[in-house]
Write a structure and sequence with these properties.
Strand content of chain B: 25-35%
Mean pLDDT of chain A: 93
Number of helices of chain A: 4
CATH superfamily of chain A: GHMP Kinase, N-terminal domain
CATH class of chain A: Alpha Beta
Shape of chain B: flat
Order of helices and strands of chain B: EEEEEEEEEHEEEHHEEHHH
Helix content of chain A: 25-40%
Radius of gyration of chain B: 22 Å
Number of helices of chain B: 6
Helix content of chain B: 25-40%
Low-confidence stretches of chain B: 223-266
Distance between the termini of chain A: 60 Å
Strand content of chain A: 25-35%
Strand order of the largest sheet of chain B: 7-8-9-11-10
Strand order of the largest sheet of chain A: 3-4-5-7-6
Oligomer: heterodimer
Mean pLDDT of chain B: 82
Largest sheet of chain A: 5 strands, mixed
Largest sheet of chain B: 5 strands, mixed, barrel
Number of strands of chain A: 12
Order of helices and strands of chain A: EEEEEEHEHEEHEEEH
CATH architecture of the largest domain in chain B: 2-Layer Sandwich
Distance between the termini of chain B: 38 Å
CATH topology of chain A: Ribosomal Protein S5, domain 2
Shape of chain A: globular
Low-confidence stretches of chain A: 236-243
CATH superfamily of the largest domain in chain B: K Homology domain, type 1
Number of domains of chain A: 1
Structural class of chain A: alpha+beta
Largest interface: A-B, 41 and 41 residues
Radius of gyration of chain A: 19 Å
Chain lengths: 243, 266
């Protein structure tokens, strides 16, 4: 698609959303039997699957830490996830995304509970449509909870960007490609930021406003993450007192 | 309601002195660390719905030998950490080069965690009255955090299961369960155990399992009776002779050990 004339017209974006509207989200918990925890996450056109293994033995041995667990995060895009076939395997971009995503989740994981062990997180992008790192972090956070790993809280992530001088929440592919700025943010439900990146330019007060928008977005996602986890055990536990 | 499904980071209480397992305290408030079931009796604690077994001294567990070294057996205990069983912790004195004669790779053992240090070096022992060799029966695996539900309040669930299925059941803290008994009864026991595994979070578990067992048994009795009338004798007759001999031998053996186990418990 070539650059459209206008990315936003009278407050309505190309895909019909308002500036502060998220794309539709679909979450499924526990989709993989072999993994200790897993999650399938749809974020508009993004389709990602996260698997968590561990805590388990560290291989190779030299990576282990004697006083805490190591967290390893692998972000990978399937070769069919984008229109032009992506050359499989790690590349500069996926190594970077893996690193920042790992650092977005590490602060909430009680790593010191499991010395000399590893917590492995695998995120596979099946279909990409801008914002895969945020989708991956959202999915990984649910998969970690599903694996029973102790955490301070869940992590929610979403992006804010600027198109045609307007701040918008959760960019899609065209907005990302032809917009002026893209800023993914990950945070805890009480608003502590664990990841923030930006490409493009924002003015100082735009940045402040963008951060507020990201916060609202993350809160909304957090509620959906919670609902998805609860739904896995939907058969209610009302009055489990007679145990 | 004093039980609730919670996610990590969920607010639980204003009183930090109540904080127990599965929680953390920040700014004098108690939050959950895991995705699990929170209970508010006396203390606030959260039991996770999944997770790995983390060994504690005093746990009775079931391990599988995965390596034999010069003076240690390395034991898989379903945890991120390996168990170490030193040769001196074997009930009798044996030579280093004869270790594989007594316990070889792949053997299952019922064992006791004697010590866990800060580096998570897990030491095991076989020197305990309660331990038995695992030579027959079946071992199944369940979620370690659900073990208390399998045992029930002061052992009610397990006692009921033993009673109803006539099997001997031992539940290791690491989520391995050892069942001995007759084939069809073991089948029934395993079915009910897996049902518990699936439905731990739903209320009235013991009652549902009791009903489930009755249902299963009721069906079996109804199916068997007409068969017996037709054949007049035991069902074993229809099976090939060789097999039936093997089976009876197995049964004798298992009953012998069962008696031993039951005798010990009394």
């Amino acid at each position: 698609m070539s650059k459209p004339e206008k990315l936003i017209e009278s407050g309505i974006r190309l895909d019909g959303r308002r500036p502060d509207e998220l794309r539709p989200i679909k979450i499924e918990v526990g989709v993989l039997n072999r993994a200790d925890g897993s999650c399938y996450f749809e974020f508009g056109g993004n389709k990602v699957i996260a698997a968590v293994y561990g805590p388990r033995e560290v291989h190779p041995r030299h990576q282990q830490k004697s006083n805490s667990a190591v967290v390893r995060y692998r972000y990978n895009m399937a070769s069919f996830s984008v229109e032009d076939r992506k050359r499989p395997g790690p590349d500069r971009r996926s190594i970077e995304v893996s690193k920042v995503s790992r650092e977005a989740l590490e602060p909430v994981i009680f790593q010191e509970y499991f010395p000399r062990s590893a917590i492995d997180i695998f995120v596979e992008v099946l279909q990409a449509d801008a914002g895969t790192r945020t989708a991956g972090i959202n999915a990984a956070s649910i998969a970690l909870a599903d694996a029973g790993i102790p955490m301070k809280s869940l992590i929610s992530a979403c992006a804010v960007g600027k198109i045609d001088d307007t701040l918008v929440l959760d960019l899609n592919k065209d907005e990302d490609n032809y917009g002026q700025a893209d800023m993914p943010v990950a945070m805890t439900p009480d608003g502590r930021i664990t990841l923030i990146q930006m490409d493009g330019n924002l003015k100082r007060d735009e940045f402040k406003e963008a951060l507020e928008m990201a916060k609202t977005g993350c809160m909304a996602i957090h509620e959906m993450q919670k609902a998805a986890l609860m739904e896995k055990y939907s058969a209610q536990i009302e009055g489990e007192n007679n145990e | 309601m004093d039980k609730k499904l919670v996610i990590p980071g969920e607010f639980l209480s204003d009183d930090p002195s109540l904080a127990d397992e599965g929680t953390y305290v920040e700014d004098n408030k108690v939050f959950s660390t895991v995705f699990g079931i929170a209970s508010f009796k006396n203390h606030v604690r959260v039991v996770p719905l999944s997770g790995k077994y983390i060994p504690k001294p005093g746990d009775l567990i079931i391990g599988v030998i995965k390596e034999v070294t010069y003076s240690n057996w390395i034991v898989d205990i379903r945890s991120p950490y390996d168990g170490l069983l030193h040769i001196s912790e074997f009930p009798r004195r044996i030579e280093n080069d004869e270790m594989s004669k007594y316990l070889k790779i792949g053997d299952s053992i019922m064992t006791l965690v004697s010590d866990v240090d800060a580096n998570m070096k897990v030491e095991l022992t076989l020197n305990d009255q309660r331990l038995r060799p695992i030579k027959e029966g079946r071992v199944i695996e369940v979620t370690p955090s659900k073990v208390p539900r399998f045992i029930g309040r002061s052992g009610s669930m397990i006692a009921m299961l033993k009673n109803e299925t006539k099997c001997n059941i031992f539940i290791g803290q690491n989520g391995r369960i050892w069942i001995t008994g007759r084939d069809n009864e073991m089948e029934l026991a395993i079915k009910s155990l897996l049902k518990i595994e699936r439905e731990t979070h739903i209320s009235g578990l013991t009652d549902r399992i009791t009903n489930f067992l009755k249902e299963q048994k009721g069906e079996k009795v109804q199916v068997k009776k007409p068969e017996k009338k037709q054949k007049t004798m035991a069902e074993d007759k229809t099976e090939p002779v060789e097999e039936s001999i093997e089976e009876t031998e197995e049964k004798k053996e298992s009953e012998g050990i069962l008696d031993e186990l039951l005798g010990n418990e009394k």
